[in-house]
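A.,

Following up on our hallway conversation. C-alpha cells first:
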C-alpha cells in the first residue's frame, strides 16, 4: 500500500473545486512509527526530545493542531484505536482512527495554512508511518455534542 503524508495535485484541485462554505468531516486512519523519525531540519533531531515513540510524537502534533482546529470552530468528533481491519487490505496495520469536524471547508484550508499548525506538522511526519484522510459530508456533525 502507498505511504501518504499529504494530498497530490489532483486532490488539491478537487478540494479547491468544492463548496468552501460546506461543513466537512475528515476521517483519518493513522499508522504510527515504532520510534519517532524526525528529519535533520527538525529542532528535535539528534536531541533527547526525538527519542520518543511515534505515537508520542504524534500526540505533540495533535495538541497543537487541536488548538488550531478549536480556534476555527471545529472539533475532534472521536478518536480511537483500530482493533482490526475487517474489509480491505490489512497492510498497513492502522493503529488509530479519528474524525475531525470543520464548520466549513474554508476552515479546513485555513487550518492547513496556519503557522502554528504548519510548525507542529513536523511531529505528525515524525510520528506516522502512514496516514490516509477522506473528507465526508460534515452535516451530521454540525451540532455540538451534548
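Then the amino acids I'd put at each of the 146 positions:
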Amino acid at each position: 500500500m502507498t505511504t501518504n503524508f499529504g494530498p497530490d495535485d489532483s486532490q488539491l484541485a478537487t478540494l479547491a473545486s468544492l463548496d468552501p462554505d460546506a461543513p466537512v468531516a475528515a476521517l483519518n486512519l493513522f499508522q504510527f512509527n515504532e520510534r519517532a523519525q524526525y528529519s535533520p531540519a527538525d529542532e528535535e533531531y539528534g536531541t533527547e526530545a526525538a527519542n520518543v515513540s511515534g505515537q508520542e510524537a504524534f500526540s505533540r502534533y495533535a495538541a497543537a493542531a487541536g488548538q488550531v482546529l478549536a480556534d476555527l470552530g471545529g472539533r475532534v468528533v472521536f478518536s480511537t484505536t483500530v482493533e482490526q481491519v475487517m474489509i480491505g487490505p490489512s497492510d498497513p496495520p492502522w493503529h488509530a482512527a479519528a474524525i475531525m469536524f470543520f464548520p466549513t471547508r474554508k476552515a479546513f484550508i485555513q487550518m492547513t495554512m496556519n503557522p502554528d499548525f504548519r510548525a507542529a506538522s513536523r511531529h505528525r511526519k515524525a510520528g506516522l508511518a502512514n496516514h490516509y484522510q477522506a473528507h465526508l459530508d460534515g452535516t451530521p456533525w454540525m451540532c455540538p455534542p451534548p
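The chain has one domain: 21-141. Curious whether your intuition agrees with the design.

B.
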